[in-house]
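Here is one chain, start to finish.
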Amino acid sequence: MFRKALMMFAAVALVSGVTDVAGAVTTLKVGTVAPQDSAWGKEFKKFAKIVSDDSNGELQLDFQWNGQAGDENLMVQKIRSGQLDAAAITAVGLAQTGVTDILIFLLPGLFQNWAKLDAARDAMKDEFNKQFEAKGFTILGWGDVGAGKNMSVGFEIHHPSDLQGKGVFYYTGDVVSPKMYSAIGGITPKQLTINEVLPMLTGGSINVLLAPSMGAEQLQWSSRVTDICTETVTFVIGAVLASSARLASLPPNLRQIIVTRGAESADRLTKTIRNLDAQAWARLKTTKHTYDLTEPERQEWRAVFVKVAKELRGSVFTPAVFDRIVQLSGNPLAN
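Its structure:
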């Protein structure tokens, strides 16, 4: 009698288990420094809804907004430890995976426009995807942050020497900016996380930014800025990075949904961000003092950029990858 009851209980449990599995919800935790009402946040919400709809609610994306999961370095660490499943980060964060060659895209003065960057990134995507996979990460989609410009509080930046003695900073994990400040000399930069920038800017500890217009607006940095140079120093890129092991643990149908929809979301976001960044720049030009560089001033900056590129090639950047991207950029930066 007991055996029959046990068998009946097992059968009921088995049926119930099938039902539970079919209706189970898998949640992926995704970190981002973006505010949820920003352009990035709106697209990420759309991404999450599409994933939920495609999976009949079985797969949910739980975004941790406003850097709640930490700065980009910490988010990468959390993906490694399993505390996060994915994160939307810039190239600086991507480099924390060990794929430091990705920072070549941030070299100042390398790309003349987005089209040149697109050509180089498209040609190198497979190579970089393999490098990230080898480190245990998967790129769900590549994206952009905006065209970075020199912004300052109370003064113009025409010459590299204008930065000497000023309050400059670099993000934790950035190897390019410190090298540039070292090449100029007379500069003691602060190392900051993205969440520390606004308080430092407000308090006057820093008074120089290299940032895209849209990012400066969304993070409220532009409210403190008075002067902006019209030159684009660098084009800031990023990606949505996920744990390869976590993706592999998903049922094939759910894995396919997140991979497919992630790439689509990145494509939509790229188009949106570039347009919104241009609009933000147009707005800033009406409220801030903007100025151009003369050709001799451009050459001063170029001399610094070339020096930085040469020093990083072979020390931080793989020579073959560096040479290929520089070639694709059409800019003989290291010559």
